[in-house]
Model the fold of this input.
Amino acid sequence: MINLLKRYLVLIFMFARNSLAGQLEYRVNFIMGVLVEAGFLVVKLTYVVLIYKTGVNINGMSPDYMLVFIGTYTIMTGIYMSFYTNFWNLTNYIREGTLDLYLTKPVSGLFLVTFRYIDFATPFPAITAGFIMLGIGWHRCGFSVNFTNIGIFTGCLTVGTVLTYSLFLIPRLLGFWTMSTTGIAQISDAIWDFNNMPMKIYNKIIQEIGCFIFPIFLITNVPGLIIGGCISKTLLIWYFMAPVITLSICVIMWRAGIKRYSSASS
Done:
């Protein structure tokens, strides 16, 4: 099991290195991608300025504490965008029958399809800005900067990445059963923006749905709740269960889809 994990980590490193080399061959496009995404990010961050100007506490959360959540959301957005292109291409592979090329490789087809290309230009501004906001909010809230808190937050980013990957891959896997998943995928992507503010600004019903039915709030809210020491045991347990469940659903859907997949040669 450990050797298998090492093998996949090596493959991800190779994919990342090759993707970066390929993107840097067209440096103007790479730089433009960074600048365009930075422009979008500046527009999106106008509400952060608004929060600080008003200085309003929402459900007991100060603007500084909310900045921790917003920073986490921005970081996770960058991580999500790094492999988003693979999700977008998956439907085309299924529809055109070009998935054959990936299925013949001596490695998991699902892994290969979803990690083959890693974007660096688009995520860079978001991840950078996210850590800056997180650092400012962390400092102003008075949270300790120690190995324990840093380790906890790093672990939360890992759990959140797995949950993001599996949760938003599910709509794309429906491509095995439908002609197009564009509508479903667009809805799921739009739901992502619900995370740009702490879940406590929403009513209880929306919070329950976003935590336990479509657990998107877990991705960016739990790290701040853990560091702030205000998370319930139930939510903490579910936080670690949700990625396992959603990832298992992805594997089941992938295997079922492969059985009914019609290749380009069939």
In short: The first helix runs from residue 2 to 24. Residues 97 and 262 are 7 Å apart (CA to CA).
